[in-house]
UniProtKB/TrEMBL annotation:
Region: Disordered, residue numbers: 1-37, 67-105, 117-184
Name listed for the protein in its UniProt record: PRKR-interacting protein 1
Biased composition (Basic residues): 128-144
Pfam families referenced in this protein's UniProt entry, alphabetically: DUF1168
Biased composition (Basic and acidic residues): 90-105, 117-127
GO cellular component: nucleolus
Compositional bias per record (Acidic residues), positions renumbered to this chain: 163-178
């Protein structure tokens, strides 16, 4: 124990030597009162990395961190911990199951949409092919009727109108302008 006397030798007062002078600080860029010797400059990132950095920062700020039923590192397993573990495990298994079900539904829906588009395209192709066939048939029929009409007009210039009526009534059904056949 020290009594505060100099003879104890525990404490001595010594005069401090003068410190060397520091170099002058540069003036602050923004007029701020920063007393840092080295100014911090943010690293410059490429635009893509900057966007990712912004997204990551936004996610970190907005997503809450939930910690449930934590125990300290020195805590032992008590009798109630098993039930908590089982409950947390069941919740996690349910969550994973829901994620799998959701993934399967999305996958099946995408496959269904793709198959439906393929079927619709095939049906449209068949319809276009049949439409073209009907139009060709109609065109041939018109050409045939115009040839027979013109040849008969040459033979009988007066009575050409009655045969045109008969030729349109000869078929089983009459076709409309859009290619549909109407039964008579």
């Amino acid at each position: 124990m020290s009594t505060g006397n100099s003879k104890d030798g525990d404490l001595q007062l010594v005069e401090a030597t003068a410190r060397p002078a520091l170099p002058p600080r540069p003036p602050a860029a923004g007029g701020g009162g920063s007393n840092a010797i080295v100014q911090y400059t943010a690293p410059t990132l490429p635009e893509e990395e900057e966007d990712l950095e912004i997204k990551l920062r936004r996610i970190i700020e907005n997503v809450p961190v939930r910690v449930n039923n934590t125990s300290g590192s020195s805590a032992g397993s008590g009798s109630g911990d098993f039930h908590q573990y089982r409950q947390m495990r069941r919740r996690e298994q349910d969550r994973l199951t829901r994620m799998d079900i959701d993934y399967q539904k999305r996958k099946e829906m995408a496959e269904f949409i793709q198959r439906r588009e393929e079927r619709m395209k095939a049906a449209e192709d068949r319809t276009a092919k049949k439409r073209l066939k009907r139009q060709k048939k109609k065109q041939r029929k018109k050409e045939k009727n115009s040839k027979t009409t013109s040849s008969k007009e040459c033979q009988n210039p007066k009575g050409g109108g009655e045969e045109e009526k008969e030729s349109s009534e000869d078929g089983d059904g009459a076709e409309s302008d859009d290619g549909n056949v109407a039964a008579t």
